Automatic annotation (TrEMBL):
Domain of life: Bacteria
GO cellular component: DNA polymerase III complex
Cited Pfam families: DNA_pol3_delta2
One example of a Gene Ontology biological process annotation: DNA-templated DNA replication
InterPro entries named in the record: DNA_Rep/Repair_Clamp_Loader (IPR050238), P-loop_NTPase (IPR027417)
Protein name: DNA polymerase III subunit delta
Species this protein is from: Parerythrobacter jejuensis
């Protein structure tokens, strides 16, 4: 069991032991808290039945929906076990293909689990199609929606699901996690990762793996002194890279928000408005980025401008 999962497991196990298991679940919390791992383990516990052998690998009664490969070339990369680029959203066709499977009986037992991760990335038509299944779920079918930003889900979807929230971890817990999963990382890198992670062990690990320390230094410099001549924003664009992956972009947004939140903790309440506004705008931009597929250079300038707008004695920029 990962740290911070105790309450989630308690709720799941209590529901499993009860007379009527709720058919829809939302696993909500910051990216990098292990929600996907818990969803898979919880689904396996759900579909397992006494006297029925369960497969070690993929389970025929657990359907996992995520963003598909971008094209045939990326699909071949996935088939070869190589890193591949994904589409921006989970499509309505994926939901409808899943729904067609729900017209058949489960393979090994009486239950089937559908994991959608991240449910934040459902396109509009996919959300509406999923809602129909949540309104009239087939007998023995249960949905686990993994979400980093539950507010992006349709209110009608949220109202039909039970929400389990995952807490962030303290610095000592993240330090132990990094010691286990990144044992060769330098101590300075670990300390920087913990400071930038905002309580997410996955974000801390991404900080190390994606070498985000130079980005963190630039972001803190912009936030501390502004960027009147745009020079630091140019350096930020160079550090982000010309073709960052979606995962890297997400890690960069997590980093920027964590740095703003870190600054808010040490700023007097009377002076916190600019930081709070920049943090809210950064969250909104992070939500828009996957949908609009912004140019990396544009994103770098927008992120840098939001940080500069919160610098002392600076006016907010028009972003």
């Amino acid at each position: 069991m990962l740290p911070g999962h105790e309450n989630a497991w308690r709720e799941w196990d209590t529901a499993l032991a009860g007379p009527r298991m709720h058919h829809g679940w939302i696993l909500a919390g910051r990216s990098g808290l292990g929600k996907h791992d818990l969803a898979l383990a919880a689904a396996r516990k759900l579909v397992a039945e006494d006297g029925v052998d369960q497969p070690e690998g993929d389970h025929p009664d657990i359907i996992v929906l995520s963003r598909a490969p971008k094209d045939d070339k990326e699909e071949r990369k996935r088939a070869d076990g190589k890193p591949f680029e994904r589409k921006r959203n989970i499509s309505v066709d994926q939901i409808r293909a899943m729904q067609r499977r729900l017209t058949t009986r489960p393979t090994l037992g009486s239950k089937r689990a559908i994991i959608i991760d991240p449910a934040d990335d459902l396109e509009k038509g996919a959300s509406n199609a999923l809602l129909k299944s949540l309104e009239e779920p087939p007998v023995g079918t249960f949905f686990l929606l993994v979400t980093h930003r539950p507010a992006r889900l349709l209110p009608t979807i949220r109202s039909r699901c039970r929400i389990v929230r995952f807490p962030t971890l303290d610095s000592e817990e993240i330090s132990r996690y990094l010691a286990q999963h990144a044992p060769e990382s330098a101590n300075d890198s670990r300390l920087a990762a913990i400071a930038a992670a905002g309580g997410s062990p996955g974000a801390a690990l991404a900080f190390i793996e994606q070498e985000l320390a130079p980005l963190a230094a630039l972001m803190r410099q912009i936030l501390g002194e502004g960027d009147a001549d745009f020079a630091l924003r140019g350096q930020l664009a160079g550090a982000i890279g010309a073709r960052p992956t979606r995962e890297r972009i997400q890690a960069i947004f997590d980093l920027a928000r964590a740095i703003l939140a870190e600054q808010m903790e040490t700023t007097p309440i009377a002076q916190i408005d600019k930081l709070a506004d920049a943090h809210a705008d950064m969250a909104a931009l992070a939500g828009q980025a996957p949908t609009y597929n912004f140019d990396p250079g544009f994103l770098a300038m927008e992120i840098g401008s939001l940080l500069a707008s919160a610098a002392p004695h600076r006016e907010r920029a028009n972003v």
